[in-house]
Amino acid sequence: MNTIDHQSVCNQIFARIVGKKMRSTGSKALVSAVMKESINNWSKDSKVKKKLAAPVLWVATKVGKPNPNEQDKYLAADVGALLTSLARKVNADHASGKTLHDEKQGEAIDAFLQNMDFGEVLEMIEGADPHVIESIRTFNQQLWKYPAKAGALTVIAIALMNTSIKGAREIMRPIEEQFSPDLLADLILSIIRDVNGTNAANLTNTVFELIRRVHTGSLLIGKGGKPLLQTYLTGFFRDYYTAMDPELARKARICLAEDQETIANAKADALDANSRMVLSLLSSLGKVTSCKVRGKSRKWRILEDVEKAGFNAAVSESVSDLDTHEVAGLINTACSVLDRVHDAKPDVVSNLVGGIVDSIDSEQVRRISKWLIPDLVEALRPLAPIVLPELIKGFNELVTPEEGAAISLSFAEGGEK
After folding, report:
1. CA quadruple 363, 365, 368, 374: dihedral positive or negative?
2. Could you tell me if residue 345 is inside a domain?
3. For residue 268, is it within any domain?
4. Does any domain span residue 389?
């Protein structure tokens, strides 16, 4: 049986690559430059040494002379052949039953771990803190002696970003020009088709189990009725907010809000000069909204299609787990805060609402009301005989002090029936 020694083939190709690289113009020029520099440093101002070094300098010059017949394509071909040979070697190992995770590799890893003192490494990293900070400070002190150089770094970053954008566009250009929609869709969507959903689910289950275990452990070793996570986060945020500058935080929030306004204004200014884009966005609004509605409708139909027994059990569990006391506490707290706001500034609602109403174009509201309300009445007319009796009955029960009484004008005005 004819067997191929793939390792030997890889070694031969790699040796050929190294040899060609050593004989390349760049390598010979580097060797020539090193030789010249070393000889010049040795001879310096000595005439005798210079005469002795002259032949060696001539040899160095000849070594560094470029070869016009040199072609790099053969080196690139050898690199391709090397990668192919490595792949063949690995495939042959797989076919023969050999694996990289054999007993010897396990022994090597075990030997590494036994002789590696992670405590020493930890001490080195923890002790490096002041030295690293000092090195950074020294670097900054020297760098900012030359502000123009620091500015040049920013310009370089911008140039690299622009080049990356252009490069990404050029990478995608052949896809745009040569792939038909069906072929491109088949190519891209095959990635989704070939992803193993079971493996992805197993990974998700593992992550969920880790989350559950950390959560359970936090509850078990927590103190004072608080999970350990809450205790640690409380300490972290206490230090965090103590060290923060409240005035600076206030100004930063205002700045960010103003920057968002600036971005919105910039987009609006740009769209003002491009009415076609505005019309394009407007014309797509209907289909976009319809797609969102259909998606939400399909999600709700999932609940409709669930078998009744399971649905009832899930709803019962969900409702029983809802802490109505906490919901009521939230409402009470909100009412208390609103009451404190009113005590601090009793006219806050009238001023705010009054300021808004005073700024509204009443004529515009009148014109809209003339067509909007009749249209809504006409659209809702088929539901009125079904909904309104129940609404009236419900309001009647809410405001009726005694069973059987009806809504009266005196009650609406604050009087008694």
Report:
1. negative
2. no
3. yes
4. yes
